[in-house]
Amino acid sequence: KDGVDITAGKTIEDSNLTNKVKGDQAPHGAYKLLFFSGMSYSKAICTDYFKRVSFSKAHRENSRKQTNIIGGLTSAVLGLASVPAATIGGVGAAFSAVDSGFDAYDSSFLVTPNLGLLSEAVYSRMREIQKNYEKEEFSSSAHVLLALSEYTEPCTHTGMQSLMDKSLKDAINLAQPDP
After folding, report:
1. How many CA atoms lie within 13 A of 122 on its CB side?
2. Helix residue ranges per DSSP H, the chain
3. Which tens digit of pLDDT belongs to each residue from 116-149?
4. Contact assessment for residue 140 and residue 26, using Cβ atoms and an 8 Å cutoff
């Protein structure tokens, strides 16, 4: 077949994978394949993120509860052993600081305590973006990468925060009657 060699990719030509494109024709099939492959990969990464966050959250919550139980038991034992109140207060403050550390971590690195609703919002937004690009005729790899950047945005920390902010604004607007 006559065609131009595409060094960095493959195209779909006559239902066969090839690295040739006829003349100056853009390899739309290859770009579409790149887009759908990128979406699949991005969704796999996003799914893995939610699995890891959920697992980590469960372990952090367990550790936090165990720390609080140990702190309470330690203070009780120290009180029964007639240890000075200053020492008991210091132990209580130390365990309280650990508990505050869990709060600080959660507020810094978690977008919401309800991961189920958040993941639902993220995947819903990703489906909307996918629908917007289903009929797109990609003309370059840069075009595909811009579309994939938009597709992956909801599964970034900033994207998740944006979805949560939008959700809260929508709830506020529903709760407030129009003047």
Report:
1. 25
2. 28-80, 85-109, 115-133, 141-152, 157-175
3. 888 999 999 999 999 999 889 898 889 999 999 9
4. yes
User: Torsion angle of alpha carbons 31, 32, 35, 41, nearest 10°?
Assistant: -110
Closest CA to 9 of 36, 24, 27: 27
For residue 106, what are the CA distances in angstroms to 16, 100, 178? Answer: 50, 10, 36
Q: Which residues contact 93 (CB under 8 A, 6 or more apart)?
A: none
Q: What is the pTM of this model?
A: 0.65
Long-range contacts of 163-168 (CB under 8 A, 24+ apart): 163/118, 163/121, 163/122, 163/125, 164/111, 164/112, 164/118, 164/121, 167/121
The residue with greater pLDDT, 30 or 107, is 30
Residue that the structure tokens 């597709």 belong to: 151
pLDDT exceeds cutoff 50 at 17: no
DSSP-based three-state secondary structure for 16: strand
Please give the single-letter amino acid code of residue 107: S
Q: Which residues pair with 16 in a beta bridge?
A: 13
